[in-house]
Amino acid sequence: MPLATRRLLAVFFPAAAPPDEAGRMPAVPAPAVPPDLMAALPELPEAAARRRAPPPPPYRVLQEKLGTKLLHAWLQNRHQTLFPLALNLRNLDAEGRHLLVEMLAASARMASPQENQAGNGAEERAALVLSTLGGGAEDAERLAAALQQPHPLPELLEAVRAAGLGAQAYVAALLLAGRNARLERSWADYLAARFALPAELVLDLERRAASRRIRRMAR
């Protein structure tokens, strides 16, 4: 078989290429790699090390370290930062004050009728909670009117949710509820579920509100 034929067979059909007279397979030169393919190949570690960017300046490293520490500290105390227990109605706008007063009245109406008829009932404690939240005379009048003519509950809950005051309304319900008031505690649990408050936030607010509830008067 001619030498040219054996080389062609070795290139296209290596297994079918016959050996030469000495029993050796014909040497086939390695195909050249196109330049565009060479550019697409990944760099070797040595070449990548030579092209590596210089290290960042010291002040940039310090900024990243401080930023990481600040973010970690904020995440650990985000509930106290975003949802402070010390609510102050004077820090809210008129609409927010009105909504929280209406929610306080709704929470007071969730107490049993027997409790409201007794001394230091839910309505009296609602007035005390309002005063601790920084409510003034106008807020007290609004609370008294809301206790007599309450706002429709579905519309009120939706307005509170849209205003982003769900956690504040839950805190007001916690401050009003007693330790053994099952009905009021069930109402507070409903508010937590209605406003989709995270379980971690609910536990934190419950812990911080435990020592600030308005206690019932001894009967």
TrEMBL record:
Pfam families, per database record: DUF533
Protein name per Swiss-Prot or TrEMBL: Tellurite resistance TerB family protein
Family matches, as InterPro entries: YebE
Domain of life: Bacteria
Species per Swiss-Prot/TrEMBL record: Teichococcus oryzae
